[in-house]
Amino acid sequence: MRHFNKDSLDYNFTDKLEAGISLSGSDVKSLRTQVPQFRNSKIEIVNGIPQVQNLFIPPYKYSQSQVQDTTKDRSLLLSKKQIAKLISLRNQKYMIIPIAIYLKGVFFKMEIGIGRKMKKFEKREKIKKEEMKRELR
Questions:
Q1: pTM
Q2: 2.40.280.10, 3.20.70.20, 2.70.50.60, 2.60.40.10: which CATH number matches 2-136?
């Protein structure tokens, strides 16, 4: 089960990381049964802690607490070295985008992409290259 961010196709990634994500019990149950929405989600570093913002996880319908914040900031679990790398790249105007959420063993992991948004002409070139590869097959 791998939930993919379609907005990540608009970015040219220079590096990718795998991070753990801290979730509540109802969030985990909801991710096992429903698809999250990545629209406008991004990763920001607040007080030295990377957090996912605007990630919509639908509420679990059998949850005891009826009031759930579905787009709350969720912190990512990374090493100090990886966090320092993210901070330095963020200062260099790179965007940090969630690419996918998937289950690894019993834990949910998030794939993070570090890169820049492609310009329109770069997107067109990418599409042309993909079409050329398809024609060669």
A1: 0.83
A2: 2.40.280.10
Domain ranges of the chain: 2-136
DSSP of the chain, one letter per residue?
-EEE-GGGGGEEEEEEEEEEE---HHHHHHHHHS--B-TT-EEEEETTEEEEES-B-PPPTT-S-S---TT--EEEE--HHHHHHHHHHHHTT-EEEEEEEEEETTEEEEEEEEEEEPPHHHHHHHHHHHHHHHHH-
What is the structure's pLDDT at 18? 96
Q: In the chain, which stretches have pLDDT less than 70?
A: 1, 65-68
In this prediction, residue 9 carries a pLDDT of 83
